[in-house]
Amino acid sequence: MRKGARYASVGRVIRSYLVECYWPGVTTATYAATVDRVAATALPADRGVRFLDSLLVPVDEVVFYRFSGQSRTDVEWACTAAELPFQRILEYVTAAPTPHPA
Known about the structure:
Elements: E1 7-22, H1 28-40, E2 50-57, E3 62-68, H2 72-81, E4 88-99
Antiparallel strand pairs: 1-3, 1-4, 2-3
């Protein structure tokens, strides 16, 4: 471990899904309204899908929505239920560092 690092190793690995939406002409207002709609969509617990957050990249006219879920199919179902138009769904993995003991 390098000097001054506060983390000993990588901790829990979490599988999640990134939903990519190409959105020509997107505005901050329409983006915010869509985020609210996606967050308010009732998702059945048996599907195990949870909306995490989203990211707007105005210069590229693209919005990314992050979900956790058991499968890509379940996330696709959730996006359809929320009337979220998307181009693709990508599985990704995040890793949070485990804090180094003091």
